[in-house]
Amino acid sequence: MSAVACIGAGTVGRAWAVVFARAGYDVRLYDAIDGEVARTAIPGARRTLELLWENGLLTEDIDTVVSRISAAGSIAEAVADVIFVQESVREDVAVKRDVFAEIAAHAPADAVLASSTSAIPGSDFLGHFAHPERALVVHPVNPPSLIPLVELCVTQWTAPETVAKARALMTEAGMRPIVLKKEIDGFILNRLQFTLVAEALHLVGEGYCTPEDIDAVLTDGLALRWASIGPFEVAHLNAPDGFQGFIDRLGPMMRRMGEAARTDYDWTPEQIASAHAELAERVPIDSIAERQAWRDRQILALRQLKQKQ
Q1: What are phi and psi of 214, to 5 degrees?
Q2: Fold matches, 3-180 and 189-308
Q3: Residue 84, pLDDT above cutoff 80
Q4: 6 DSSP β-pair partners
Q5: What percent of the chain is predicted at pLDDT more than 70?
Q6: Integer Cα distance of 129 and 82 in angstroms
Q7: Mean per-residue pLDDT over the chain, rounded
Q8: Is the pLDDT of residue 264 over 80?
Q9: Which one, out of 74, 127, 238, 272, has a CA that is 20 to 30 A from the CA of 209?
Q10: Pairwise CA distance, residues 290 & 203, whole Å
């Protein structure tokens, strides 16, 4: 198959390399830190592929997939003759501007140029090079090698055919793309996630419950529904006459709670320290890596269950 480039070989970049290599693409992986790809990224990609293999989510042997990932000596070398570029460098507008200027100067004119930025609007750094119509944000959930959702977000310059190409490639690679109709800070997932976390900090900070209680509400409550259906369908199924009936009955309460929510809650350093202490007792700092591995196995087990359904 065709080649793709991954610029930045950190946690997100190497996860993208797994996504593309697993889908059959030759992946050219570049990082500004000399030797980072061979020393850290490719071994990390192999560990992820081993996890996927153990959970029945890899259709080829590990060595075959790993062999598709190679280290590039420069951005120019990485992007030559590729059909798609995924940038995953640090969240700094100036850095991203410089990186994309170099990508655009050397990538084929018809290649899609994508950024993994978590919150920076693409228009802040994707419009200063030739033919910005080929660029957009393709925001993953970390790590994209395990979680399929991606958010495609256009800038004012992005061409419709660029979105179509990105969406088709992501779908073919086993991802689940959604398309934002216009730019907004944080895109969709982070706005929902951070809004919930902010209200959680308010509830804990004002003494309504503990961080452990909040986590239980999600894992043993909301997430059991949300793992299969989202909040709109949850509401639709929670009323005998569907979403309209749900809003007719509960809309006033929703508005009242929304007005009372404190997503702008002014938490204190002491409150954060207290929450950290409780979490560190539950998951000690020196066991975070072990807990992350457990989390990843849980994610894959849930994906297997959803596939069987």
Answers
A1: -60, -45
A2: no
A3: yes
A4: 29, 86
A5: 100
A6: 18
A7: 95
A8: yes
A9: 238
A10: 29
Q: Is residue 111 a contact partner of residue 83, using CB atoms and an 8 Å limit?
A: yes
Using DSSP's 3-state secondary structure scheme, residue 4 falls into strand
Indicate the residue type of 145: S
Hey, what are 269's tokens?
């350093």
Specify the pLDDT at position 1. Answer: 63
User: Per residue in 215-260, pLDDT tens?
Assistant: 999 999 999 999 999 999 999 999 999 999 999 999 999 999 999 9
64: enclosing H helix or E strand? helix 62-66
- If residue 281 lies in a helix (H) or strand (E), which one and from where to where? helix 269-282
Contact 265, 200 (CB under 8 A): no
What number does CATH give the domain 3-180? 3.40.50.720
Domain boundaries, the chain: 3-180, 189-308
Residue 37 is encoded by which pair of tokens?
């790809």
Q: Using CA atoms, how far apart are residues 85 and 83, in angstroms rounded to an integer? A: 7
Closest CA to 157 of 177, 178, 130, 180: 130
Q: Which 3 state secondary structure label does DSSP give 5?
A: strand
CA distance 45 to 37: 10
DSSP assignment of 45-61: HHHHHHHHHHTT--SS-
Q: Classify domain 189-308 at the CATH class level.
A: mainly alpha
Helix (H, G, I), strand (E, B) or coil at 115: strand
Contacts of 47 (CB under 8 A, 6+ apart): none
